[in-house]
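Hey, I'm writing a tutorial for new members on how sequence and structure tokens pair up, and I'd like a real worked example in the thread rather than a made-up one. If someone can provide the structure for the chain below, I'll link this post from the tutorial.
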Amino acid sequence: MLTRRSATTLAVLFALNEAARAEPAPPPSPKPAAKPEAKPAVEAVDKDQVVAILGRPVTGPGKQQIGTLIDVLVDGTGQPQAAVLDIGGFMGVGSRSIAVHWNLLHFTPADPKAPITLTLSLDQIKAMPEYKGMENKPAPVVVRSDVKPAPAH
């Protein structure tokens, strides 16, 4: 006569024996080989077609240097809308930043050493509000009264 304990032991041994006789589980399938990343396309741009502008001097209408272009503000499509200029001061002391509409700047791409020209008078430049960054509020961008800014996107 089997006791309850003996019956349980026999059931466990029988189950283990059956599991040992079962076929082993197949090994996990290997991961598919990773596709090599496509190399980005590289296109050479002729140096006569482009000009670097950040850090370039900006002159006023009298050809005197009034500041340096330090940033470009772009819209949602990446099109430039305004330029941020660091003006005045001496070696950073007493200088301030202003933002001007992109249409007020004139470039000479054929001469990369030529300054960028701002078409505002010194009085207009002095009267401009200081640009202190965006910080979730609109930037004060100065435009000439005869220049209409592009609509916001």
